[in-house]
Amino acid sequence: GAVVSQHPSRVICKSGTSVKIECRSLDFQATTMFWYRQFPKQSLMLMATSNEGSKATYEQGVEKDKFLINHASLTLSTLTVTSAHPEDSSFYICSAGRTGRGTDTQYFGPGTRLTVL
Amino acid sequence: QKEVEQNSGPLSVPEGAIASLNCTYSDRVSQSFFWYRQYSGKSPELIMSIYSNGDKEDGRFTAQLNKASQYVSLLIRDSQPSDSATYLCAVAGGTSYGKLTFGQGTILTVHP
Q: How confident is residue B85, by pLDDT bands cut at 50, 70 and 90?
């Protein structure tokens, strides 16, 4: 299998707080992990690409100082939304590329629904 | 022109019919093509991947790829109400190696 977990599945926070989301590949090693954001009735938007042991590559328009990504091991990447505001409320989904099979096959985590009050 | 285009639908088919979902892409050197299914409020689930021209079958699903026409499709045979979801076409390789570019998704409704 290729199982990816995310934690938490849902979080509600006050404006100005920071939120950390964890993404884990449970049964395989992932050289590359990806973070997406999805607003209602829209498709997935890639935020950043995370490679183990190196800095993340952010897509144009994504603030790297606001969305901190750490990929400390081959099975764990974290996304921290710093000083969250209501406009950051969204569905955040990570995916993992399976090492050895190329990174183009991605397996998605179940997502984290963030609501900022 | 969008990089990956899908008919947003909604596409409505009766139970037991064949549902046909289409996707075109603009990057001619794309190498990998995927269909994901996404239920409302859930994350995408990989259904099919296809890399070579022609057909690839997996159960009730058949993916078709035509690189010359830059076209990929998904056929769902014997459609079931549980197939009702948004189907996302994704393309990788070429100038965006390692990244997936998604279409906007096609909403499929299978009615009993």
A: very high
Chain A residues within 8 A (CB-CB) of chain B?
32, 34, 42-44, 46, 49, 93, 95, 97, 102-111
Six-digit token string for A46:
């890639």
Contact indicator for A16, A77 with CB cutoff of 8 Å: no
A45 pLDDT above the threshold of 80: yes
Which residue in this structure is represented by tokens 């499709």? B73
SS3 B83: helix
B100 and A107 within 8 Å at the Cβ level: the answer is no
The DSSP output letter for B95 is T
- Name which of B49, B98, B105 is nearest A49 (Cβ-Cβ): B98
